[in-house]
Structure formats: C-alpha cells, structure tokens
Amino acid sequence: MIVTAPASLKSAFCCYDVMAEEIEVVVQRIWWDIAVKRMRAGR
After folding, report:
1. Phi and psi of 13, rounded to 5°?
2. Distance (Å, rounded) from C-alpha 38 to C-alpha 36?
3. Is the N or C terminus of the chain more exposed, i.e. has fewer CB atoms within 10 Å?
4. pTM of this structure
5. CA distance 6 to 11
6. How big is the CA angle at 9 (ends 5 and 13), to the nearest 5 degrees?
7. Cα distances (Å, whole numbers) of residue 34 to 1, 7, 24, 39, 40
8. In this structure, are residues 21 and 1 in contact, taking their beta carbons and an 8 Å threshold?
9. Which string of DSSP letters, residue by residue, matches 2-43?
C-alpha cells in the first residue's frame, strides 16, 4: 500500500496506518462491485 499522507498527519493520528488499510480494502470492494456490474451489463 502506498501511503501518501504527510508525516505530520501520520504522527498526529497513531492509528493512521490501520485506517488507511481499512479504507483501501473498502475502495477495492467498491471497484470490484463496479467491475462486476459492468461485466454483467455487457452481456
């Protein structure tokens, strides 16, 4: 995972890395759902 937040933000929030990973998982699920819907619509 690429974390692009500035160091000041990371140091201000000790749980930033965990939150970033959770956000990434959610975004991947959303993109997967969109891709599946587009594939089904293409049939």
Report:
1. -120, 105
2. 5
3. C
4. 0.58
5. 9
6. 120
7. 21, 33, 15, 9, 10
8. yes
9. ---S-HHHHHH-TTHHHHHHHHHHHHHHHHHHHHHHHHHHT-
Q: How many CA atoms lie within 13 A of 11 on its CB side?
A: 3
pLDDT 10s digits, 3-18: 566 777 677 777 777 7
Q: Are 9 and 16 in contact (CB under 8 A)?
A: yes
pLDDT band, very low/low/confident/very high, at 33 (cuts 50, 70, 90):
very high
Fill in the DSSP letter of residue 1. -
* 30, amino acid identity: I
